[in-house]
Amino acid sequence: MISLRNVNKNYGTFHALKDVSLEIAQGEKVVICGPSGSGKSTLIRCVNHLEPHDSGEIRLDGLEVGAARDVLKVRRTAGMVFQNFNLFPHLTVLENCILAPKLTGAVSDREARKMAEDYLARVHILDQAWKYPIQLSGGQQQRVAIARALCMKPKVMLFDEPTSALDPEMVGEVLDVMGELASEGMTMICVTHEMGFARKVADRVVFMDAGRIVEIAPPETFFAAPQSDRARAFLSQISH
Ligand code: ADP
Ligand code: MG
After folding, report:
1. Which of 34, 58, 88, 109 has its CA 20 to 30 A from that of 41?
2. Contact 16 CB / ligand 1 (< 6 Å)
3. Which is the closest atom of ligand 1 to the Cα of 208?
4. Nearest residue to 158 (alpha-carbon basis) of 54, 46, 240
């Protein structure tokens, strides 16, 4: 479903991704962890072409990421959830969810609204549909952001530290929704340091450092017996 082969990405003279290769099967859930600045966000932003990569090949559900004709399809195939929610502040919860599907022109207003209501119900927040983002808690806003992404019917969901901006008591409700999505078979890449989530949901953990993938292992192996000094040092610094 997702394939990266020898992907390199530079920001000016800074080499942010170094020969990154990763294959993710349909339905697989991958957690990416690693120190700040190791390239985690860059990797997932390259997957849906929010950042162009410089060399190597990225494929998403058969699409060539970066090929001009496929950019819109790529964006529809991979839904993205950001650390800071990125909801439109001037739109209600329902309008946030309806906007993009309507812009595609592929669904009627009624269908777009029905779909938005369905997904808002699935993230347990339909009762807040008429509020504006600022009237919601962080956890609620992030669940709306997940519903909004799902309204585009993506085949893959990319999460970039979706709980790190939340107060601790709201982390669980967002991870629960992500866990439900995972159990429904969604292909997912989650950048997160929530190691409980990684243990429960991830098929594999990818550990990055300094722009490279250093280790890939099932969570039980990664946590019990990390292979590299860098992964051991990283794990000793975070609570898990
Ligand atoms: P992570 O998500 O693992 O913290 P990032 O992928 O955000 O790391 O960043 C990797 C490196 O690339 C960091 O050193 C960061 O400063 C740099 N970087 C990220 N985005 C940009 C950008 N738009 N311009 C220049 N440097 C960037
Ligand atoms: Mg990041």
Report:
1. 88
2. yes
3. 3
4. 46
